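G., the chain you wanted modeled:
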Amino acid sequence: MERIYAWDHRHEQVVYRIPGHTHKDGREDSDLSPVWLPASPEELPSGVAVDDLRKVDVDD
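Predicted structure as tokens:
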């Protein structure tokens, strides 16, 4: 499963999601209802910088 990374500008951190993945708590990640999880900049693929990421709002 491929991760999609983004920048959560509200919390100022890198986040990721796995489209189509069902998490242990039962939430399913979809384009209409993405499940963003915290990540670190070190996890970004080679050649991708934080400035390259799209900005998202992640609710608490």
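Strands lie at 4-8, 13-17, 37-38, 55-56.

Shout if anything looks off.
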